[in-house]
Amino acid sequence: MTDTMSEVGRARRRKEDARLVTGRTQWTDNIQLPGMLHVAFLRSPMAHARITRVDVSAARGRPGVVAVFGGADFAAEQGSLPCAWPVTEDVVIPDHPPMAVSEVRYVGEAVACVVATDRYKAADALDAIEIDYEPLEPVLDMTEALAEGSPTVHESGNKAFTWKFAQGDIGEAFRDAPVVIDRTFVQQRLIPSAMEPRAVVAQTDGDRFTLHSATQIPHILRVMLALTTGIPEHRLRVIAPDVGGGFGSKLQVTAEEVLCLLITRRLGRPVKWTESRSEGNLTVHHGRDQLQRISVAAERDGRIRGVKVDLLADMGAYLMLVTPGVPLLGAFMYNGIYKMDAYDFTCTGVFTTKMPTDAYRGAGRPEATYAIERAMDELAVEVGLDPMEVRRRNWIKHSEFPYTTIAGLTYDSGNYEAATDRALALFGYDKLRAEQADRRDRRDPVQLGIGISTYTEMCGLAPSRVLGSLSYGAGGWEHAEVRMLPTGTVEVVTGTSPHGQGHVTAWSQIVADALGVPFEDVSVIHGDTASSHKGMDTYGSRSLAVGGIALVQACEKVREKARQVAAHLMEASADDVEFSDGRFRVRGTTTERTIQEIALATFAAHDLPEGFEPRLDAQATFDPDNFSFPHGTHLCAVEVDTETGATTIRSYVAVDDVGKVVNPLIVEGQVHGGIAQGIAQALFEEAVYDAEGNLLTTTMADYLLPSAADLPDFVTDRTETPATTNPLGVKGAGEAGTIAATPAVVNAIVDALRPYGVRDVRMPCTPERVWRTLQNRALQNRALQNRALQNRALRNEEGASA
Amino acid sequence: MIPASFDYSRPSSLDEALAVLGDAGEEAKVLAGGQSLLPLLRLRLAYPTTLVDVGRVAELRGIADHADHVFIGAMTTHHEVIRSPVVNEHCPLVALATATVADPAVRHRGTFGGSLAHADPAGDLPSVALALDMDLVARSSLGDRIIPAAEFFVDYLEPALEPGEILVGARVPKLGPGWGFHYEKFHRTAQAWATVGVAAAVRRSNGTVEEARVALTNMGPTPVRAVTVEAAVRGVAADRNGSLREAAEQAAEGADPPGDLHAQPDYRAHLARVLTHRALLAACAV
C-alpha cells in the first residue's frame, strides 16, 4: 500500500457526528421504556450534620408518587460506593453509603428520593419530605483540617493518607544551593461540565438487570456494581449508549447508579434519573483542589539540582473510585521534561465536607505541569535568563532519548527542540518581547505578557504491572475484536468507550489500512457489556495508545487467518502469499484473491485448509509495556488591562507532538478543546463554597465556562516524533491541551505584571483578583518607599548628629 | 428543565392577551422571549400560576419611525433592533447596547420589551432606557399608560407594571444632531451579565461637552443615572486631557453596587469610574 492511499493520517470527517449533533441517537435521557418511573433525589442542604429524623409520609400522598425512600430504606443493601485505589496500606477509606443514613458530609449528598410517574411530579413531591438535621461543624480548609483540634469529617480524623516518593539525595541538592525557588500554588476546585448531564435508566425482569448510564466506564462499572450491590456480574448488563462528554466526570461509580438499580429491584419497574445542571454542579465529582508547595534548587546558571513537592490534596468527604490516586498520577510528572539529580514528593490526602474530588481531564498531570512550569518562570527571573533559555538548559535533549527521568519513568521519545523552535517561529516571540519592552517603557495601562509551557504527560494508561505497583485495583490492558462478515465488511468490537472522541472514525481508519477494506465498510460496536464483553474503557488518553494497539493486533490475526485460506485456495504456500491493499497475491504471479473473497469463502466453508476453523475473526488484548509521552510547547500572549484587571488572550500557539496521527481533524479538535479547558482553569472556572460549606457556583451564571466568543483563534501545529513503544507510534492527544494551557496563560499574566512587583496571581485570574493583586502591590510598594524614605531620613539625622 | 406546574396560554392578539392576563390573577407572568424567565422557572425561583406567551401577538412586534421618537415594540427581538436602520439612525445607543447582549442565539429569541419588563439592573437595556429618557408604554383593559424610564425600574426585578398590564413598547426620543453615544460593557464572558455597564450619550459643541446623559448597569437594585457625572462633565473639554477622567471619578456617587462572585462592591465602584471615563471618551469620539 502506498502512503497516498493510507487511511491513517487522513483528516476524515467523523462518521458518528451526524447523529450525535442532531440528537437523533440514543442519549440515555432519550430512552423511554414501558411503565418507566422517574426518580428525583432530595439532597442535603447541610455541609455536615447528623440526620435525626426522616419523615417521607406526606410525600407518599402527593400526585403521581409511587414510592418514597430515605437512607434507612436502603441501609441493609446499599453497601458502600467503591474506592478502587487504596494508595497506601493505611489509607482511610470511610464507609460511603449511596444514600446518607445517619450523617451527611457535603451539601448535595442524597438523603431521600421520590419515585413518580413523571419527573415533574417527582420533583414537586420532594418539598413534602421532612428531614431534621443536627448541625455539625463543617470542615472546609485543608490546612485547618489537619490542625490539632479541628472538627473532623469522619471519626478517624481528616487525614486520608500520606504518600511519599523520593529519588536521589534531596538534602544534598538543596544544601548550599545557589538558587532556591519556593512557591505555593493553589489548584482551585473545578467542576467538570460535560455537555450531556449524567443520566441513568435501570430495569430488571426480576432475574437480569440492565443499567443504561451516561458513563465512560461500562465495563469497570459492571464489575464494581456487581461487587457493591450483590447483583451477580453475569446477570448484570451495563450499557453506555451515546455519551456526550465526560472529561473524567463519568469515570465513576455514582450513588445514583447504585440507587437506581436498588429502586428498580425494589419496585420491579424501570426507572430513570437525569440530573439537572445545578444538581450536577453539586454532585458530579469535582476536580483539582490541591495546595502545592514546590521548591526548586538550582545553580546560578539555571540548571536544576532537585525538586521537592509537598501537596495537600482535597479528597472531599469520601474517597470515590480513584480519588486518592489522582494526585499520584502527577507524582511522576513534577520533574516535567527536565533533568535533575534529586526529587522528593509527598502528598497528603485531606477530608473536607465538600463534594468528593476525582479524575478530571489530565488528572494529577495538569496540576504537576502547572507547578513546575510556573516554577520554571520564577527560576528564570531569579537567575536573570529568558524563560525559554532556562528551560533549554534543563530539558532532555533529543539525542538523549530514551531517557529515564528522576521520577523513574522512561520517556521513549521526544524532541523538545523541534516543537519549541516551531512554536517560537509561529508565535513571533522576539517581536512580542520587543513590544512588551516598549509597553513597559511607555507605562502603557495595557501591559503585554508572554507565557511559556513546555510540557510532557504520561498517557496510554497503563501497564498493568505499574498499576499493580501503585496499588490500583485493576489492570491497564485493552481489548478488541475484529470480525470479517460474509459480505466482506468488518465489524469491530472495542473495549474502549467513546464519549465524544471519535473512536468509530479512527478505528475505521486503522482497520481500513490493516485489512485493506474501504473506510465505509467498517462499523464499531462499543459500550455494551453484552456485545462488548471485555474492556477497560476510556480515560487517561488511553484509547488509541492501548485500545488502538489491541485493534491492530486483532487485525493482524484476522489477516493471517485470511492468508491461510487464500494460500489454500490459490494452491500456494502461505509463505509465498503477499498481502497489500486488500489483496492476497502469490509472489511473482498475477494470481490473487481479495480479502472480501476470502471472507465469503470462509463463510461458505466449502473448501478450507485442513483443520481450519471457519471463522475470520479474532480477538486481542494488549497490555502496554510503558506509558506514552506526548509533549509540546505552548506559547500565550496576553494583554492585561491594569485599570480593570481584565486579561485578553491576544495570541496562542500550540505545537504538540502526539506521535503518529491517525486523524488530524480529531487531534485538532482534541487540542482545541483541551486548550479551551486549560484556559478556563486559568481565567474562569472555580467551584466556590461559602463559610458554611454551601456551594455558591450551582449555575452557569456563577460557574463561568468560556464559549467560543471568549477565546482567541488558536494557532496549532504538530511535530511528529513517533512513540517507540507501540506499533502505531501513537501517544495520545486527549489531555495535552488541558495540561499545557493553564500554566502558559498564568505565566503570561504574571509576566505582564512583573514590573508592578507581582510574582503570582492565584487562579482563576479573574479581573477582580488581578486588580486586587495590583492594588496590594501598589500599597506594599508605597510602604516600601515610605520605609526607604524614613531610613534615609534617619541616616541623614544620624549623619548630621555624628 | 423541571419547573413547577403552571397554566399556559398563547393568545394571538393583544386584546386576547389582556383578557387572559386579567383573568389569571396576580401570579400570572407574561412570557416574551423566555431568555430570563425560563431560567427562573427552571431553577424554581419563580412560581407563576399562569404563563401568558405573547410570542404570537404580532401587534407587539416592530419598529416605527415617528416625528420626535422611535417606537420599538416590546416583542421586537434584539436581533431585529440591532439590524433596524431606523434604530441605528435615530437611537444608535439602543443598537450599540443590544449588540452586547449575550450571543446570537439569545439575541434571536430575547426581546426588547422582555428585557425592560424583567427590570434586571444587570441587563443592558434598562440603563439605556434611563439614559435616553425613554417613555415606556403599558396597556391594560383601562387603556395605555405612559411610564417614564426614571419611574419604571422600581426595584430589583420589579418594574412599575400593574397586574393585568402588558408592556407594549417604548418611545425612544430622537435626540437630534450633535450627540455621540457609547455603551461600555464589562463582563467576564460573552454570556455573562454585565459586571458593570455604562450607557453614555454626549452632546458636544466646539470641543466642549454641552450635555451628557450617563446611566449605569448593575450598580444597584435598579439602573442608576449618574447625575453627578452628568453635572461635572457639562462644559468641560471633550478631549483626553483629563477633565473627562476627573468627571468620571464621581461615577459611583449615589450608587449601591451589589457584591457577588464576579465583583465585590468596591471593585464595581472602581469599574464604574474607569468605564464611565472610557464611555465618555468614546461618546465624544476622542
Automatic annotation (TrEMBL), chain A:
Domain of life (superkingdom): Bacteria
Cross-referenced SMART domains: Ald_Xan_dh_C
Keywords annotated in UniProt: Molybdenum, Oxidoreductase
UniProt xrefs under InterPro entries: Ald_Oxase/Xan_DH_a/b, Ald_Oxase/Xan_DH_a/b_sf, Ald_Oxase/xanthine_DH-like, AldOxase/xan_DH_MoCoBD1, AldOxase/xan_DH_MoCoBD2, AldOxase/xan_DH_Mopterin-bd_sf
Gene3D superfamilies cross-referenced by the UniProt entry: Aldehyde oxidase/xanthine dehydrogenase, a/b hammerhead, Aldehyde oxidase/xanthine dehydrogenase, molybdopterin binding domain
Pfam family, one: MoCoBD_2
Key word Cytoplasm present: no
Coiled coil regions, renumbered to chain: none
Recorded GO MF terms: iron ion binding; oxidoreductase activity
Residue ranges of every copy of the Aldehyde oxidase/xanthine dehydrogenase a/b hammerhead domain listed in the record: 22-137
This protein's name: Carbon-monoxide dehydrogenase large subunit
TrEMBL record, chain B:
Record Gene3D superfamilies: 3.30.465.10, CO dehydrogenase flavoprotein, C-terminal domain, Uridine Diphospho-n-acetylenolpyruvylglucosamine Reductase, domain 2
Domain FAD-binding PCMH-type: 1-177
Swiss-Prot/TrEMBL keywords: FAD, Flavoprotein, Oxidoreductase
Domain of life: Bacteria
Keyword Oxidoreductase among record annotations: yes
Keyword Transmembrane: no
GO molecular function annotations of the record: FAD binding; oxidoreductase activity
Region annotated Disordered, chain positions: 244-264
InterPro entries hit by this protein: CO_DH_flav_C, CO_DH_flav_C_dom_sf, Diverse_Substr_Oxidored, FAD-bd_PCMH, FAD-bd_PCMH-like_sf, FAD-bd_PCMH_sub1, FAD-bd_PCMH_sub2, Mopterin_DH_FAD-bd
PANTHER family from the UniProt entry: XANTHINE DEHYDROGENASE SUBUNIT C-RELATED (PTHR42659:SF2)
Protein name listed in UniProt: Carbon-monoxide dehydrogenase medium subunit
Native species: Sphaerimonospora thailandensis
